[in-house]
Amino acid sequence: MKEMNEILKKMVLDKYISLEEIPQIDLYMDQVIQLFENKYAEAKRNEDEKVLTKTMINNYAKGKLFFSVKNKKYSKEHIILISLIYQLKGGLSINDIKTTLDGLNKREKDSDFELEAFYNSYLKLFNQNINDFQSHAELKQREARDQIAHSFHESEEELEQILLITSIVQMSNLYRRLAERLVDELSSEQQK
Question: What is the extent of the structural domain holding 68?
Fold first, then answer.
């Protein structure tokens, strides 16, 4: 198995849409899709994978994951919300994403709320999470290697890789379940 730092380099973890990359003018749907495709193309697992499609955006709009679009154009705020949806959809259901973003959508109607400031805070945590993730992934690889060496008294690359995969998926499930609990709490608070 390759060393973790080699694998992580290929994952292109530091891809996100910065505020500076979002045009100041409103965009049509095809332009929004192109922005996301250009930014996340390297992060796709294979060529057939789509980053964002018209159907996805239409489903997000129908599901009220973001506030209404005007004249078929998407504002900077819409693109920020779609970027958050893009990140959240890997771990949460559409209903959970709606619950999570509902407060942002309601606040966006308030002229005093700065969605850009919130997004900047998110991006700071995003970058910190990448650093934490890289360190943690390397630690998990060492732990899997040590466990296999201890249990089998030899290096067994395939078993090491399988153990690492199961460990990482288990951690992912724990984080997803924690996020779901936080969404449930948010939902309870919103209903009050």
Answer: 4-191
